[in-house]
Amino acid sequence: MRLTPSWLRSSSEGDADERSGDSETTSEFTMVYSPGSDVSTTDTDKTRVREFVPESDTALVAVLDELNTPVTVDEVTDELIEPARPPIETWATVHERLHQDRLPALDAAGAIEFDATRGVIERSITRTNENQFFSSAVLAAISLGLLCVVIALVSVSVLIS
User: Chain-centre distance of CA 126, in angstroms?
Assistant: First the structure.
């Protein structure tokens, strides 16, 4: 995981396509993430998080749907915060809230698949396809119903003539 905002990357860092797989990434900024650490959050931090993280699960899932999954927590955090460039502490607080609270809750609800160890979010394909199959089944049933009505009307008009 990157654990830094996208706008804090060193200018010497290229895109992933520009780096060879064996080269080590150097960055002027390093953040250490320890899941067990006690990070005190103030009311100001909580207010900042509310500015960037959608309150409803539906809205957060909609943001995830707009991204090409699999996606990292870092990328989701960047997406939620852009175009604002708040202090690194705000970015870290939003990242922590997503990683520790919101994404595990969505995973437990079955809306997404979240690997907390790798920090990777995947949209559940089967869940998305269920909605598509349901829509296709309903459309097929309606089409068959209309076809039966048209056949019945044509038959009645032929019999009357």
Answer: 16
Integer Cα distance of 26 and 5 in angstroms: 15
C-alpha to C-alpha distance for 4 and 94, rounded to whole angstroms: 12
pLDDT tens sequence across 62-111: 888 888 878 898 898 888 888 788 888 888 898 899 899 999 998 898 88
pTM: 0.55
Is 22 inside a domain boundary?
A: yes
**What is the CB neighbour count within 10 angstroms for residue 72?**
17
Give the number of domains in the chain. 1
Q: DSSP labels for 107-135?
A: HHHTSEEEETTTTEEEE-HHHHHHHHHHH
* Residues 6 or more apart whose Cβ sits within 8 Å of residue 90: 45, 48, 49, 52, 81
Is 77 within the bounds of a domain?
yes
> Which structural domain, as residue segments, surrounds residue 27?
6-35+42-123
